[in-house]
Amino acid sequence: MSYRKDNLKKVKQAFSEKRSAALAASRSRLERLHREYPDLAAIDAALAETGMRLVEEITRGPEGIAERVAAVRSENERLQADRAEMLAFYGFPPDYTDVVYECPLCGDTGYRGTALCSCMKKALAKAGLESAGLSALAESQSFGSFDLRFYSGENRRTMERNLDFCRDYAKTFHDGSESLLFIGNTGLGKTHLSTSIAVSVIERGFDVVYHSAPSVFAALEAEKFGRPSALSSAELFDADLLILDDLGAENPGALNVNFLYHIVNTRLVSQRPTLINTNLSPAELQKRYTDRVASRLLGEYRVLRFAGSDVRMQKIGF
Ligand SMILES: [Zn+2]
Hints:
Strand order of the largest sheet: 4-5-6-3-7
Strand content: 5-15%
Distance between the termini: 44 Å
Number of domains: 2
Bound molecules: zinc ion
Order of helices and strands: HHHEEHHHEHEHHEHEHEH
Radius of gyration: 30 Å
């Protein structure tokens, strides 16, 4: 599992700013109170003094230490009670000067002990969706919104199995998970299930790179010829999960066949899972990308066949 380094840095920075802001806000409430209510400032000074006296009593040695410490403690408690009463008298809640963190569980540090706090995990998942370009799709294209009513008969059973498989795949995704090839005509939910897997795997803390095939090949071509590129081959090779949407929509040509071979082969060798979806049939894959690529896709990826009639057309009444 590897949160993207740049996301981790960005989120940690945001947490540190959030925490500083919470501390500063509490300090400024306290300073305001001290300015406006000198008697409160005096109580706070006395409270601070009991803290120092406690240390003094302890360092004075063991003789009568229990009584001496208890005396300081009880004075401290009396002062605390006076302070609460005074705050109430001036119309403030007792916790008015406490630091208000967005997440009380971790005090906006993002960590509980050495483990990531749930709030930090959520922020990292959100950043992951943003960097994968999936923020907008994440809501509409989830496992929960995949509607099996658009499929019937044997097709429906096939799609039920696909949905179950994908859900389980996302839930148990790990380094070395198998690679997937979604095959089927347009409008059968391949992108929907690819996005659902991406969102769910990102939420579990993995780095997912999700792009359409045309944009990946365009970026690789730019990189090869030294032009500015939005995406580097390193990103494609290193992602925990690479999703290549709509293979076959790019311009045909030997260069792209080589790029595809390079991506598929490198990731298979390093045991990094890849998900590719395509409208092309196995025969078309073979014809377009040569045996060398097709045999890897059809032989080493798990192939899921998507069946039915175009859901998008059904939705608009055809
Ligand atoms: Zn937290």
